[in-house]
């Protein structure tokens, strides 16, 4: 709902699209939608198209003598600009967190096409089926999409397992849908693919926030049972492809189920969550230009935080200790470094509380200390483990080495471990590997990565 002066609302009513150029040449498209209600009030929302956020409320809309001001309080952002005489563009600036960026908004008549270049276009040359099945042990219903080749079955099949955080069946993030692209590629190569909404997300039931990696493994086991029940699937050729945390889950499932005939780990961890988080924080901070002193201080704070999570099992006590640690750190930060100085006390409290809730969640408690190596040593089916050379989230050198050593020590006779040059955590072709680039890269998955996965699976699903 707007406040401020509004005159000639018709001048600014409609959709306005502009592109911000932020650090490293990254572009973020902003879409403002301004509309008038019958009672004369003005409603406005903002979408950040390349970051997948939509419907963000614009609390203040002020327009007078051709000058427009839009204020988005939730992200501390303000646009101020002037409408050109032709009424088609508004030239101005976007201000946020102490930075100022030029921004020109252009009037558009229809929603922009958000399709990425690699997103498949219907009609597909294969069949697509909406499916629902149960994880009876957990009392959870899972919803997904099964894509099936049109040739004669029964087909080899794979289940795609998403990375950490609440994900839909396409593993959609920042305008990319990696699992849609991957399932399309594999189905065209003759492999049936099941991709599924995480529990509590999309069409699936259950409580995501109370689930651990082990719970998600139970959901994948239910997917295997579902595929085995179908006549068009060859139950002797069912494999798993796990991305990121999915690469932790796939080995857990393979050890529990003799029906898993192969697994693909895409940026799967070989170290404990705690070890990965230290490496990740260091690499991402350096890519963002942080100095050694800041990195060392960050490292010390993380160590203190993780010791509380590991040692204090009582959530209430752990939460109090964590709140104090984070608040003390904020108070010790110099004014120059403090990016939160413009936030109100209530905003900061809400931020800290959200952070603390994540830290004491069942998922984080499991992830921090779970060591994937003993599980990997028990995996006897064929394994493909791949990582991008520029992955800053699950660093390739340390993780691939740990995976290879565990598979070798366990006596696995068929494994391939590969580092793919120039690719990031999402397997996009990248300059630095920094997560800040993900949205701006048009590519969803490198064709090289798709080919490596496709060729390896084809080799391991051919009938003798």
UniProtKB/TrEMBL annotation:
Residues 182-426 form the Serine aminopeptidase S33 domain. This is Serine aminopeptidase S33 domain-containing protein. PANTHER family: ESTERASE ESTD. Signal peptide: none annotated. The lineage of its organism: Archaea, Methanobacteriati, Methanobacteriota, Stenosarchaea group, Methanomicrobia. Coiled coil: none annotated. GO terms for molecular function: carboxylic ester hydrolase activity. InterPro entries: AB_hydrolase_Est10, AB_hydrolase_fold, Hydrolase_4. It comes from the Archaea.
């Amino acid at each position: 709902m707007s406040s401020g002066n509004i005159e000639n609302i018709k001048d600014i009513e409609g959709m306005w699209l502009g592109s911000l150029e932020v650090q490293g040449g990254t572009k973020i498209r902003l879409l403002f939608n301004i509309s008038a209600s019958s009672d004369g009030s003005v409603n406005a929302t903002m979408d950040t198209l390349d970051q997948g956020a939509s419907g963000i409320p614009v609390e203040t809309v002020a327009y007078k003598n051709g000058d427009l001001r839009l204020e988005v309080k939730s992200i501390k952002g303000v646009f101020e600009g002037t409408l050109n005489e032709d009424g088609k563009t508004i030239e101005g600036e976007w201000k946020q967190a102490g930075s100022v960026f030029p921004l020109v908004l252009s009037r558009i008549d229809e929603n922009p096409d958000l399709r990425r270049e690699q997103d498949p276009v219907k009609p597909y040359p294969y069949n697509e089926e909406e499916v629902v099945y149960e994880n009876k042990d957990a009392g959870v219903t899972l919803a997904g999409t099964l894509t099936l080749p049109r040739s004669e079955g029964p087909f080899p099949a794979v289940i795609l397992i998403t990375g950490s955080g609440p994900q839909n069946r396409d593993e959609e993030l920042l305008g990319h849908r990696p699992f849609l692209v991957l399932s399309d590629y594999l189905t065209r190569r003759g492999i049936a693919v099941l991709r599924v909404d995480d529990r509590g997300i999309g069409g699936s039931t259950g409580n995501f926030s109370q689930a651990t990696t082990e719970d998600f493994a139970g959901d994948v086991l239910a997917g295997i049972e579902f595929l085995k029940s179908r006549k068009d699937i060859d139950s002797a050729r069912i494999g798993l492809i796990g991305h990121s945390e999915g690469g932790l889950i796939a080995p857990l499932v393979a050890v529990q189920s003799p029906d898993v005939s192969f697994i693909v780990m895409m940026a799967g961890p070989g170290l404990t969550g705690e070890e990965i988080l230290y490496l990740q924080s260091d690499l991402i901070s350096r890519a963002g230009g942080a100095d050694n002193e800041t990195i060392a201080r960050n490292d010390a704070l993380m160590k203190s935080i993780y010791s509380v999570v590991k040692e204090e099992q009582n959530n209430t006590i752990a939460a109090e200790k964590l709140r104090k640690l984070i608040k003390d750190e904020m108070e010790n930060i110099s004014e120059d470094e403090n990016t939160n100085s413009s936030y109100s006390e209530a905003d900061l409290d809400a931020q800290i509380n959200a952070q603390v809730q994540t830290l004491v969640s069942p998922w984080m408690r499991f992830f921090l200390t779970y060591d994937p190596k003993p599980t990997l040593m028990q995996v006897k089916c064929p394994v493909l483990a791949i990582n991008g050379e520029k992955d800053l989230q699950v660093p390739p050198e340390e993780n691939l080495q740990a995976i290879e050593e565990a598979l070798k020590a366990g006596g696995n006779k068929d494994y391939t471990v590969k580092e793919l040059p120039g690719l990031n955590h999402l397997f996009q072709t990248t300059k630095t590997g920094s997560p800040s680039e993900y949205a701006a890269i048009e590519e969803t998955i490198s064709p090289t990565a798709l080919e490596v996965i496709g060729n390896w699976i084809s080799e391991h699903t051919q009938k003798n």
